[in-house]
Amino acid sequence: MQQCALIDLTALPRIGFRGTHSADYLRVRGFELPEAPNRAVLQADGSQVARLSQTEYLLLGGLADQGQRIADEEVSWELDHNANYLLPRQDSHAWLQLSGACISEVMAKLCGVDLRPEAFPVGAVAQTSAARINVIVINLGPIDLPRFQLLCDRASLAYFKAAVLDAMSEFNGALLEPEALRH
Questions:
Q1: What is the 3-state secondary structure (H, E, C) of 113-161?
Q2: What is the CATH architecture assignment of 4-9+92-182?
Q3: Contact yes or no for 10/94 (Cβ under 8 A)
Q4: Gene3D superfamilies recorded for this chain (predicted)?
């Protein structure tokens, strides 16, 4: 019986914004923002916003529109007099989703941070090391369907994916295609 699944979402759009006016810019664009750094909020359209620091945000595309909202944000952004800078993340960060009841146990094999639900609740973000590389782990649950968004350096995707799959092996984990999320 499959207890966890890994899906490569690297093809979906993602971008970042940094600067003292980034929050204002994103609110005007209709995004709900996390109140504090290292927190994330799921948007009504399925996209996600993670706050990585006081003035840096990471936006992940939703499946319903294949990330079109986020792709449109990247295309429409223009440099102006406000401190709000676009950070292209499509080429810099790979994106995996780990889901299932045992995801905390899988990640415990790769990462020293306690990612159990009582220590890492829905909405939490950890910028840490897993399998000896830098990763961003985002818990956007919900509790009845545990799932972590895992972002790493794109050049490390094959290595990190193999490490996660190896950690999943004792839990009968499986690599699924993104289409599995649309059912």
A1: CCCCCCCCCCCEEEEEEECCEEEEEEECCCCCCCEEEEEEEHHHHHHHH
A2: 2-Layer Sandwich (3.30)
A3: yes
A4: Heterotetrameric sarcosine oxidase (3.30.70.1520), Probable tRNA modification gtpase trme, domain 1 (3.30.1360.120)
